[in-house]
Amino acid sequence: MEAAGTPTPPIPNRRPRSRRRAARWTGLATLAAALLIETVVTPNADLAAAAGPGAAQSPPPATGNPSGQPWLSGVNGDPQMTPAAVNQFCFLRGDPCDLAQVYVSRKTWASVVEPSYAETNFAGWPGKLVITVPPFPEDGTSNLQTCATGAYNSHWQEFGRTLNATGRQRSIIRLAWEGNGRWYPWSGSDPAAYVGCFRQVVNAIRSTVSAPPRFDWSINAHISQNPPSHIPTDLYPGDPWVDVVSIDAFDHYPASPTLAQFNDQAQAMGGITWLYNFARAHGKLFGIPEWGVASGSGDEGGGDNPNYIQFMHDWMVARAGQGLYYETYYNACDTPSVGSNLDRPLGARCAYANPASAVRYSQLWRAHS
Predict the structure, then answer these.
(1) Which entry of 119, 290, 300, 327 is annotated as an active-site residue?
(2) Does the active-site annotation cover 114?
(3) Annotated catalytic residue within 2, 114, 119, 178
(4) Is 318 helix (H, G, I), strand (E, B) or coil?
(5) 211-239 pLDDT per residue, tens
(6) What is the CATH number for 280?
């Protein structure tokens, strides 16, 4: 249950970037194709410098995934939601990306369900997409209760057709994410409405999509401001409507400076191990769609904490081949944001850098190559 006076965790900057005019081509060494981007982002020297021998350890066997990880591995696009930004991050870490995390604009129904940059920017990109979508636009009138009646189903049938038209039917659809918080219009203060809405959306998409996507029910780690019970799984939509259970896990609220603290938080209600066990009990795959260090969270964050990178990596390795389906690092350095950046240099558009974490991340992810 939420402790009295507990601050609301700040919202990591998940607002989609506006589409920017492509200005020139650039190549990334060892990447097969030239990629269209506006500007060349100068890589963080620390992450680039770490492209040497990996950390001394015994990683799990490599798989057929391009990343070499035994789970699907990727990142969001930062500063632009483009293949170039995604590929650059993974090139610098030493492994290609298997998937990219993308976010639709939440302004209107058209921006949510019709083809947009979230799908079209990645046309021809070979990896899988994690498409993060709200159950309705943030237009001041749409709400969970109306959604739960099926009133928005025609819009979501259109989204199914969008997946068909863009060839992204087999994407991971992360719907109504972080409903256990209190910062989105779909926050689960009314659990019955949240569950009913989620089910309506899934049913509507399934009625028009030509191949099955995987539907992802995702919570925010640690404290649950919603539902009123403060038990996040009271918002679980039910096994028939969920393929993946996932968690957004940053090093904040609270931070994990030690392994003992990480394990305590992981095993507590709302923690990553607690939710993983719930997913396994329900026969579901498990995902980590947003995770990272938290230099933008002030005293409530762990700052440039390479140990958190290590703890998360080791947690994943211990569950490789046991239902862990995917993870995407959430890379952000603008203000406000969680400040998890590993590859961009400080500058006018980048307020946070984490050089020690960048080196550790590259060492660990290269070790699976």
Answers:
(1) 290
(2) no
(3) 178
(4) helix
(5) 999 999 999 999 999 999 999 999 999 99
(6) 3.20.20.80
